[in-house]
Amino acid sequence: VIGDLKNQLDAFYQQQNQLLSDWLHSVGQTEPHDSPMDALNLATKMVTQSEAFARIGATLLERLQNKDGWDAEGLDSIIADFEQLIHHTALDQLKSATQFDSKWQTAFIKLIQQSEQLTQQQPWFQSAKNAWEALLPNLNHINWHSRTTRIVQLTEAYRAAISLYAIEYERITESAIARFKVSISKSESPIESLKSLHDHWVAAYDGAHAEAILSDTYQATYAAVTHAYLDLTEYSQRLMNETFEQFGLCTQSGMTKVFERQHATRKELLSVQKALKEQQVLNDTLAKQLADLEHKVMILATHSIDDQ
Amino acid sequence: MKNVSLTPLNLHTEILDHLTRLSTAHMTLQQLDEIDTANTACEILYEHEGLALRYYDASPFTNAPKKAPIFICYALVNRWYMLDLDPDRSFVQHLLAEGHDLYVLDWGYPDVTDQFLDLSDYIDDRLATGIEQACNHADISKINLLGVCQGGVLALCFSALYPKRINRLILCVTPVDFHTPDNALRALTHQIDAVKLSNTFGNIPGRFLSQTFAHLTPLKQSIDKQLHLISACQNTTSAKRFLRMEKWINDCPDQAAAAFLEFQNLCFKDNALMSNCMKIGSQAIDLKALKSPVLNVFGKHDHLVPPASSKALKGLLPANIDYSEYEVEAGHIGVFVSAKSLKTVPAHISKWLCSDE
Predict the structure, then answer these.
(1) Does the annotation count B354 as an active-site position?
(2) Model-level pTM?
(3) Nearest CA to B343 among B91, B6, B153?
(4) Which residues of chain A are within 8 Å of residue B132 when distances are taken between CB atoms?
């Protein structure tokens, strides 16, 4: 049975890969506005996740071979395999949540290292830099070294924050595993399917995660990662701003000041419009009162003429 | 492990069944066209700087005489069309079927030019204008105001500032006490420097908020959801229902920086409604000034706005005010989209609104 299943799984995933390739190819043939890329992304995620799901099932099946039932040792071993898979998934989530691409990080550091090597080892680089500075005097205050040093510092700070955060994630996984074991041993209904095991795991993990979120350590670590990411982003924006400024281009901070003034003007305009509206209401009331008075005066005048 | 009774045969069958279902899901996804939302017909009564006021006429949905209209103030986070996601499960259509014309304020998508919009702009200007337009259209002087989540906080502040404009106030899944011990969102974010966030990005990116929400239940929002997608994609109807929700979840507008910072400081940091120090612009919010009856609707299983956070409102209102609570057996979004909630919540709101008519 197991051999059959493994063959079937392999055949199935080959088929799925082929389907996805065909689909991708057909998407490439259509007009851009017709491209169902979101559906394609969903299908890819679905297949990837299903593959993990089915492979865990196949592993379970293999372990069940020649066993009459489940023992604690066997279950521990299965859970350990499962933990590995989850650990990877959690780290993927972590990368996605912190919106940071480690490839970019590596590439950036490499670039800095290369530029430092160029500065130190290649005389022509220094000459070129001097020539630029002579041509554009405003550039002469650019401190390449301090900039790269700062970026390396910020990148390292971010990496350190991520490392501490990963420790928190490991704690959560450990706690989730403990919860999972308790959950399946105390389950009121027997666990007869992989789906049921999966549901117990999701509840155990998210429960452990929810508990961790309420702890001071987790909150501080999460904030530290976010702040380190923001520092890095903010610094790269500052560099861009400075460069734009040196070339006489409009900067983000300059635009922000314009928006602030525009907003203040807008508020003033609204306030004037509101005052005008109130004045209009007052004018209408006064006009009505005046009309009433004129009417009364007319009546009085008519009476007065009649009396005379 | 007597509870685990997986057998090789069951497992084998389950895995093969899963793969068959995956193939079906694959085919279904290829057949889908655009994921449409907000299908209920409406008229745009007013548009200005990204803001839009939508009017829904109840006439096509009921033969009974019309009841008093409702003005819906949604949160600034996420989009209003969660109330009209799916034609079969539309909160909007259920309220229309009860006979209430609806006015829905669509806040739009703040862009970089909107980063200095503050809470006063949203409440005193945009919400006030929307309500004025709706009252003029319906030819009434006061309206029933329904606030959703953060929109409930805005509605609450508006009602305290302009009590004469409000007939009845309905708050749905609205946070009032932001410091309850079970408030996971606050726990996760309260050590994050919001000023640094705003200095870095200007407007707060919607994706940052989406990821923060997803971070509260990481597996449910990732592995579990992707596996559930297979069940959902066994036919186009359920696939569309699932993907409409996904579309909504990922459609998180950027937040105007000034309003975001103000809300963070006043609500999440200072818990200003509870400590009676809420201010909008230069105006203090005195909840004791509320005059209209209040209905407080909340989800029993809400993990974003815990019931205790909503229920705290009762202690802040004048003692003589007509106040009722309605607990729904649902989570934060389930209150508006679950089939079970839709059978009870709109009908309950309608009944409460008409209780004095």
Answers:
(1) no
(2) 0.83
(3) B91
(4) none
